[in-house]
Amino acid sequence: MAPTLLIVEDDPALAELLVWSFEAEGYKVLQTPDGEEALLIAAETPPDAIILDWMIEQLSGIEVCRRLRRHPELASVPIIMLTARGEEEDRIRGLETGADDYVTKPFSPRELIARLAAVMRRTRPALAGQTMRFEDLELDPVAHRVRRDGKEIALGPTEFRLLQHFMERPGRVLSRGQLVTGVWGHDSDIEERTVDVQVKRLRAAINSTGGRDMIRTVRSAGYSLG
Amino acid sequence: MAPTLLIVEDDPALAELLVWSFEAEGYKVLQTPDGEEALLIAAETPPDAIILDWMIEQLSGIEVCRRLRRHPELASVPIIMLTARGEEEDRIRGLETGADDYVTKPFSPRELIARLAAVMRRTRPALAGQTMRFEDLELDPVAHRVRRDGKEIALGPTEFRLLQHFMERPGRVLSRGQLVTGVWGHDSDIEERTVDVQVKRLRAAINSTGGRDMIRTVRSAGYSLG
DNA sequence: AACTCAATGACAGTTCTGTGACACCGCCTC
DNA sequence: GAGGCGGTGTCACAGAACTGTCATTGAGTT
Q1: Which residue, of A3, A75, B38, B173, is most buried by count of CB atoms within 10 Å of its CB?
Q2: Angle CA(A163)–CA(A165)–CA(A171) in degrees, nearest 5?
């Protein structure tokens, strides 16, 4: 379950350095110098985070960023921009466009790694091994444990992934289609109604200890947590 | 729910480039080189935005723009004009006529896409997932929630879409026909009177917590929010 | 008053969701 | 290898929620 990283950098020397550094950190690294290709790769195998150089060929970083954000599956993937010193204007636009952080060149790999860790902790607690909380629900991704109001709850693997998916996006309505690709994978040919059944099972498990139903049904749209 | 775009451009090469670029962005694209036809297409299936070349055959851009603005259904569709460098005079007239932005040739598709995104964010917040507000009413398209004066309000799917439609166009009077195509879809054969019934249901839901009626009936014209 | 248009209540039909049942699969134990 | 077991995906059905239409009542205009 090593987190996957996509590095978009067209300076070969820097790219190599970054790949090497992050692999040493235990990340699985994908890499391309090209904005267009980055989008393709990201769509194919959504990474857990993206390191994006501002100035790249084909498509500017800002453009890649914007397109990623538009793609529903990729909208919440954290992005760190690499900018040259002084591109103040760009930095602002970058953050507006949806970058989560930026790092000014020149930088040390250590710094970038630290920033990435911070961003991941903030946006994808599950990958950082942080336990996630929502009201009296806790999910510990490392120990694979779920507690409601302190009491341990047993979940099957699918139920667990489903709940994790919800807890990473609290309050957000997820369509059955999104849940299928998010929980079962992009290439699964699962009936959409199966989602209903797993939701029912998840509900039964979560609410067994009493307390209100944590999963909201949004008719003709999907489900959401909370 | 991809936003629809109408591109009016008579240079085939440029038109193709634009169609390609915007489709890659996830827009649904309609295209014509001809001003007259543009008006027909726009009247038939109102797009979410229009890219309009200044110098086109049949009808000048400015004329198309003016006619669009006269057409009640299309008056608020954002328009971006494409002008040749130095047509300062035209640019001013363009903005006066009701264009929302203009881009000077030559330009990169990137720039145009960015401008469009900015315009859309301004005019269609729901597409960007932003919470919309009108007085003490809030609609959160991502969480699929509606609140009045902080209190949550339950709406059925159609009521929700109807309210969203109103909130994207606050204060504007919408005819039953506009509401039918906007809320039910271009190709629905719904009785126009059905709008009345859904408006009644929406009113009942929204005003249930007390407070004044947020939906105004405009006799022999339609309804509006506020 | 006559006329037009909108609000409402009732209702039948449709769509969507919750649920229980069941078959299947991989895994483990015996 | 048989049998037990937890976990899954599908299906069919029932119930709930939602919707479109219509007839009637009511409000606004001329």
Answers
A1: B38
A2: 90
Distance set, CA A109 to CA A94, A103, A115, B193 (Å): 21, 10, 10, 65
What is residue B1's predicted lDDT score, i.e. its pLDDT?
A: 60
Averaged pLDDT score across all residues of chain B: 86
How far is A97 from chain B, CA to nearest CA, in Å? Answer: 10
Q: Does B144 touch chain A (CB under 8 A)?
A: yes
Helix (H, G, I), strand (E, B) or coil at B192: coil
Three-class secondary structure of residue A95 per DSSP:
helix
Are B92 and B151 in a shared domain? Answer: no
Cβ A64 vs Cβ A34: under 8 Å: no
Residues B78 and B143 in one domain: no
Number of CB pairs, chain A paired with chain B, less than 8 A apart: 29
Chain D: nucleotides below 7 Å from protein CB are 6-12, 17-23, 28-29
Q: What is the mean pLDDT of each run of 10 residues along chain A (226 residues)?
A: 85 92 90 88 86 78 78 77 68 65 82 84 76 90 90 94 94 94 89 97 92 94 95
* Cα B104 from Cα A167, distance rounded (Å): 46
* Contact of A202 with A196, CB cutoff 8 Å: no
- Could you tell me the sign of the dihedral formed by the alpha carbons of B149, B150, B152, B155, in that order? positive
- Which of B94, B123, B152 is at the close of a domain? B123
Domain holding A205: CATH number? 1.10.10.10
* Minimal C-alpha gap between B90 and chain A (Å): 29
Q: Which residues form the domain of B41?
A: 4-123
B109 to chain A, any CB pair closer than 8 A? The answer is: no
Query: B39 versus B223: which is more confidently predicted?
Result: B223
Task: Report pLDDT for A114.
Answer: 84
